[in-house]
Amino acid sequence: MKMKLLVCIIIGSSFLQIYCQNPRNSWTLLPNILVVEVDGSLGKQTLSCLASQEEVMKRGQYIVWKKNGVVEPQKGNSYVVQLEESLGGGSYTCHSKDGSLLNHTVVLIQEDETQKRKILVETDEGDYLKCSAQNYSGTFHCSWTWHKSRVGKVAFIKAWRISDENETWCYVDTDVQRWRCSTGQSNFSCSVDESGHGISCMDEQHCPYAEESQQIFLTIFVRTEHFLVESYSKHFYLSEIVKPDKVRISKINTTMVEWSYPSSWNSPYSYFPLTFQILQLRRGCKSCNPCAISKPTKNWRVHSTDRCQFPVKPAATAVCVRAKDAFCNSQWSEWSHLRLGRGKKSTKQRRQ
To answer: Boundaries of each Ig-like domain copy (predicted)?
Structure first.
């Protein structure tokens, strides 16, 4: 009985050792960038310096490893990364005896998806990415909010039409700092905003006059300075995220105002009509946008002209106008407002 128990303990220990030697999964994000998925338990990930057996035989025992620039005690062609919870990520380099760089690998740690996200902040709508498009030309913008204690940077961007996932080839064009993803049906290019809080993308093969039959699928990998990486995804049609720019509004005379389509909106306007919402205000505030505190009272739809004239009431002190796609339940533009400059009449004027 004691012998059986001893055998069970040995077998159990061996299984645990083998299981913990490797993480759940590892894969290449970009050349020399390895993502290691962890679940919080102890694990190991082996890195190799040289692929050529001839080079290994020549230099193997003299290869020196560094982690984040600091010399490690491990030597030889293989290096074992110790994984413990979310630790183990870093920039690993291997060098010859004279200090020459032979190879390098950045190890990024991706925690189990069931664990609480730490890098980006969830929006009030329960999402992490907020996307919008000015028009139907194929360009869109997505933004996010970094967690105050986990500010990071973009590590990888992948954008494709959802039916092309298995055919998508993505790479980073370092000359112009653009991420590119190509398939047979779409060709996306993306760039990171200077602020680091968003990206701008364009489907260079998109035709605004054709029906959009396939959704855009977007995945953004972001990483921290501590080599943690997370992915955030979103899919949509352009018609779901389109948000026109502000309309242009001006005063014609004391009883008439005029507005026109945003210059960034697609033409002809008969094919891309907007619905306009107009609000006339009797009272306002000097230092705020009066449109934000009131509700619209009238809708006005225009199909074929880029200029619209609208009579205003004598008592109105300001006019607010905003627009949205006439055919889709998409976002309204921001309000444009025009103060009419009508002050209160003097007592003598009211009596006349």
So the answer is: 31-107
Q: What is the pLDDT of residues 36-54, one digit of tens each?
A: 999 878 889 999 998 888 7
Q: Indicate whether 233 and 320 sit together in one domain.
A: no
Q: What would the pLDDT profile of 219-274 be if each residue is shown by its tens digit?
A: 999 999 999 999 999 999 999 999 999 999 988 887 888 888 999 999 998 899 99
Q: What angle do CA 131, 222, 153 make, to 5 degrees?
A: 95
The token pair at 210 is: 């054709």
Query: Average pLDDT of 105-129?
Result: 86
Domain boundary among 197, 218, 240: 240
Q: Is residue 96 domain-shared with residue 177, that is, in the same domain?
A: no
> How far is it, in rounded angstroms, from Cα 310 to Cα 280?
11
Looking at the structure, tell me whether residues 82 and 150 fall in a common domain.
no
Q: Which helix (H) or strand (E) holds 179?
A: strand 178-182
Instruction: Decide if 3 is inside a domain.
Output: no
Closest among 280, 272, 312, 315 to 298, alpha carbons compared: 280
| Residues paired with 81 in a beta bridge | 45
Give the residue from 114, 117, 73, 77 showing the smallest Cα distance to 94.
77
Q: What CA–CA distance (Å, rounded) separates 22 from 42?
A: 9
Segment among 20-29, 110-119, 173-182 with least mean pLDDT: 20-29
- Domain membership of residue 278 as a residue range: 248-339
Residue 17 lies in a domain: no
Q: Which two tokens stand for residue 4?
A: 């059986």
CATH number of the structural domain spanning residue 271: 2.60.40.10
Residues 261 and 316 grouped into a single domain: yes
32 domain residue, yes or no: yes
Buried b (16+ CB within 10 A) or exposed e, 55-64: ebeebeeebb
Residue 181 phi, psi dihedral angles, 5° rounding: -130, 125
Three-state DSSP at 279 gives strand
Q: Which amino acid is at 289?
A: N
> Which value, to the nearest 10 degrees, does the dihedral of the CA atoms of residues 159, 161, 167, 173 take?
-30
The Cα 74–Cα 65 span in angstroms is: 7
